[in-house]
Automatic annotation (TrEMBL), chain A:
This is ATPase AAA. Pfam families: AAA_3, AAA_lid_2. Residues 38-179 form the AAA+ ATPase domain. It comes from Geomonas paludis. GO terms for molecular function: ATP binding; ATP hydrolysis activity. Belongs to the MoxR family. Keywords: ATP-binding, Nucleotide-binding. It comes from the Bacteria.
Automatic annotation (TrEMBL), chain B:
Residues 397-468 form the Transglutaminase-like domain. The chain crosses the membrane at residues 7-23, 29-45, 52-70, 102-119, 125-145, 165-184, 524-545. Signal peptide: none annotated. It comes from Geomonas paludis. This is DUF3488 and transglutaminase-like domain-containing protein. InterPro entries: Bact_TGase-like, Papain-like_cys_pep_sf, TgpA_N, Transglutaminase-like. It comes from the Bacteria. Keywords: Membrane, Transmembrane, Transmembrane helix.
Amino acid sequence: MQKLAKVDEMNAVLEELSSQHLKGKVRALRLSLMALLTGGHILLEDIPGLGKTTMALAFASALGLSFGRVQCTSDLLPSDITGLSVFDRTEGRFNFIRGPIFNNIVLIDEINRAMPKTQSALLEAMEERRVTVEGVTYQLPEPFLVLATQNPVEQVGTYPLPESQMDRFLIRTGIGYPPEEIEKGILRQGSIRDEIMHIPALVTTDDLVGAIAAVKEVYVGEKVTDYVYAIIRATRNHPLIQAGLSTRGGIGMVDAAKAAAYLHGRDFVAPEDVRDVVHAVCPHRLIFRPEHEGVDKEHVLNAILKEIPLPLT
Amino acid sequence: MVRIDLLLSGLTACIALIGYLPLQGYLDPFARFFFPAALLAAAYLQVKGRALPPRVLTPASILLFLYLAAQFSLSRLVPVTSDLLVVFLGVRLLGERIGRNYLQAFALSLFCLAASSLYEISAIFLVYLFSLLLMVAVALVLLTFHAQDPAAVLPSREAKKVLTVAALMPVASLPMLLFLFFFLPRTQYPIWNFMNAPAGKKTGLSDTVQPGTAQAVSEVKGAVLRAVTPKVPEQQLYWRAVVLNAFKNDAWVREPAPNDAPAVTRGDAVLQEIYPERTATQYLPALNVPRAITDLRNDASIDGVFVSRRPLDKKVRYLAESVLADTLQTRRIDRDFYLRLPERISERMRGEGLALARSGRSSVEKMAALEAFFRGQRLTYANTGLPVGGDPLDAFLFEKKRGNCEYFASCYAILLRLAGVPSRLVGGYRGGTYNDVGGYYLVTEDMAHVWVEAYLDGVGWQTVDPSAWALGRVRSRQVRGLAMYADMVGFYWDKAVVTYDLDKQLALVRNAGNKARDLRLPPWFGKVMLLTVPVFAALLLFVLWRRQRPPTAEARLLRRMLRLLAKRYPGEIKGDEGIFELSARLNDRHLARFAALYGSAVYRDRPLTRAEAAELEEIVREASQDRP
């Protein structure tokens, strides 16, 4: 098996970040990197103050990428994200001022506070990877990752993302409270926001582009496809679920599994890679029947996974 | 709270006792007393929490070995070995209480029990064996605790659980034991003891009768035979074994029966299924008068005596057919032969007999007169204080007036002969204890008896028991209660286990063969079966093989690897993990190599190349040899 391009560098970044700066956020970091490597986006769903922004900042610095941030409010306009043309008096023409979206990593804080119009503009940019303002199309930089956050507890004055738009996010995950020891350490240390501004870049953009190309090349075999399809079909036939996984959801699952396999140093996807990512990729795409709204999606998914044997041979 | 070490020591003592007890009767005095002493000493040491160190025990063992081995000879092979086993067992108990010593004690106990079967095979062996198996199994389980921590203490509930599980193991193996019973070869007699055992026993029946050789007859209470038969009236319970018809040095002996006409007995036949104990004689007793004996090769004489063709040195059984009659009809006998007299007869006896002979009365009247004479003498039946000396019969009749059946029968038969009536002695057994539960008669040595047959012209041999004319006859004790059940268990053991031999195993096969031969089938059946059966069998085997065998080489390799891992990491392999997950979790370098190579083929949708397959084989082989 030949060596995968840049895999050591990627793992080194993960290792460095999770051991030095962002203790207890390994999973979220890894998922974020996976989203970046597959060209997907990630939705972090958790209460404020667990270090979502810190993580995004550190992530961007360590990868040597530019970072932009949008704090959503109900009066946020699409142009606040994409940028707008301003008339230059001296030159006598309009100059396009680029918005925060023109960065490699864009943190959209509390995305559910923005009004639907803004949300859809944003989501369009995420999907198309380009922005059209006043008839001119601008290509977004490569690599490009949107890290959106939303607070699942607060409901007043929010515009919850409809399921169809949730589908645009490759991965949805929480961050969770750090383990006791680590949290105590964080309390002792205080905020490290200043410190992480100065994390040196551990990789170059070329490295990242190389890695992204390598992930694309990861082989997905028939057995894995069968396994993925079995999961999709099971969600579609499940009595509690109204709408199972879409084809896009299946593609997302395979893409994420590719990234997981890549991070494991493999140039092919194993079924356990798929199972590894199911919980990040699938739950937010499942629509339960109205009478079963309250059921825990993770539990249902676990039950489904238990039913389907891992193809070993 | 249960202390494992105490429990283990107690069990070991019991196990050692079970090794010792069955052998105890056959040991030399030294070994017989050494073992209990060692057991007591071991108990004392246990209480004191001490043990004899190896530097004391090893030289002691060597000395004991030399002492015992000095008595070794080819003829004493087994006794010396049993002594050694028991002595070493005792020594083991004294040693340090560690696993090795316990295990040696268990093994020695088993050997001792095995050695005891060289001397004696009885139902009690089964009891010993099962208790030993049970206790050794429990002790072995306890030993695993002891090996982990010699001071281990278990809460009562836990201890109960452990003991139950440990005890269940040997119990679960019982069906297997029963299954093996039908197939394994066995012996019907104790291998070592069969030659000297009958000699060691004092048999009540002998083929010479000479009253006056001993002052007292010791009553031996051993079983002689057991006969499965319906109940018979008490007065007809005579078991005929041998007929003594001539004299040799004034003792009644048996000579080949003269040229008599064949005897005929009329009446309903009583069938008996007889299980004799081992004995030195070869006479086959049966209810008086036996007509035929089958199921055991034997020679019949016309006087109703049956002799086995082979020594009765092992447990056998035979079927006897008897007629309960007190006359044996014959038309013609050799009168002179049955009128011969011993050389010495006292004057008083000769006078009595000749007086009767001269009276000119008929044989029946002579017999009646003699009975009157016997009764008139007021004779007592006894087994002690018997007349001895120069002429014991004379002393019996006229002076001491006490004696056993031999005196009665001898005197009566001689007097009959003096009076001109042909007579002979019949040896056998009188009586029998009926076991209502088992439906059989138990005849013991102390029931040995001698009676008389007198020949009446035109009638035949008439049975007369002169002992019945004694003043009082002390009846032997009856076997009752527990003893009866114990005897029954022993009987069924002999019936079902000991006499179940190779012949019966072969008979089983033969019977099955015969049955199969008699089966009527259409003529085409054989050919069709001949064709279809192998085809079906092959098909079945193939299907089973295919179902059991993973379809591809990859799957077979993976299964081997997973089985190996399951052995190495017990309880870790759940079967719902991928191989990469598993290798990451177990951190097993063999599995990591295996997974990388295996996955790169299987998950890349291509079959393994020959080189890869070989390498995977190699990894599996290495992993199986690599002990973590």
